[in-house]
Amino acid sequence: MRSDDIDPVDARLGARLAELRAQHGYSLGELADRSGVSRSTLSRAERAEISPTASLLNRLCAVYGRTMSQLLSEVEAEPAPVVRTADQPEWQDRASGFVRRSVSPPHPGLRGELVEGRLTAGADLAYDRPPVAGLEQHIWVLDGALEVTAEDTAHHLGTGDCLRMRVWGPTRFRCAAPEGVRYLLAVVRP
């Protein structure tokens, strides 16, 4: 892969992942054991040879005890008190059909954040664990239909519906609308 082919966000993200691993004193093998992600995938993500998936980032966030928004904000500039639409960072997991926009990027002194999520028709996004145990989430469907499964309970949400939950185990977000779904996710760290 040529260096001019590397996405700048993926390059900053890869560098931050390598930095976090070094800060925790993990070898690639130790991080692979802790996260369940192969050494080669971790190495390729750190070198920005691949764009990490939401699932991969979630596994790493669980190891490092941070939310995905926190991790992604660490590769962006310090957030301003007012974040204009054009300045709200967007990240895509092309493999799963998930687009994530940080409406209010997290700040180290604050526990809450707002994220807009979009899933394409048929998209199914599964997380094997929360990035932070006991994470509080409020999911408000803006357009479409969403099925959220947590604690082995499926919640069918339509436009205007809101689900509040604390996340302790695996979760799954599945688009239940033929036109896709758009939702607002409010995340509050414990």
Topology:
Elements: H1 8-24, H2 28-35, H3 39-46, H4 54-64, H5 68-73, E1 90-93, E2 98-104, E3 112-119, E4 124-127, E5 135-143, E6 145-150, E7 153-158, E8 162-167, E9 171-175, E10 181-188
Antiparallel strand pairs: 1-2, 2-3, 3-10, 4-9, 5-8, 5-10, 6-7, 6-9
Question: TL;DR?
Answer:
The protein has 5 helices and 10 strands.
Describe the structure.
With 190 residues, the chain is α+β, with helices and mostly antiparallel strands. The chain contains five helices and ten strands. It has a six-stranded antiparallel sheet with strand order 1-2-3-10-5-8, with no helix packed on it. β2 and β3 form a beta hairpin.
Provide tags for this entry.
190 residues, alpha+beta, 6-stranded antiparallel β-sheet, 4-stranded antiparallel β-sheet, 5 helices, globular
Q: Categorize the overall geometry.
A: globular
For the largest beta-sheet, the strand count, sense and barrel status come to: 6 strands, antiparallel
Assess the beta-strand content as a share of residues: 25-35%
Number of helices: 5
* Helix and strand pattern: HHHHHEEEEEEEEEE
Low-confidence parts, pLDDT < 50 over ≥5 residues? none
Q: Give the CA-CA distance, first to last residue.
A: 41 Å
Query: Helix fraction?
Result: 25-40%
Q: Reading side by side through the largest sheet, how are the strands ordered?
A: 1-2-3-10-5-8
Structural class: alpha+beta
Radius of gyration: 16 Å
Average of per-residue pLDDT values: 89
* Topology, number of strands: 10
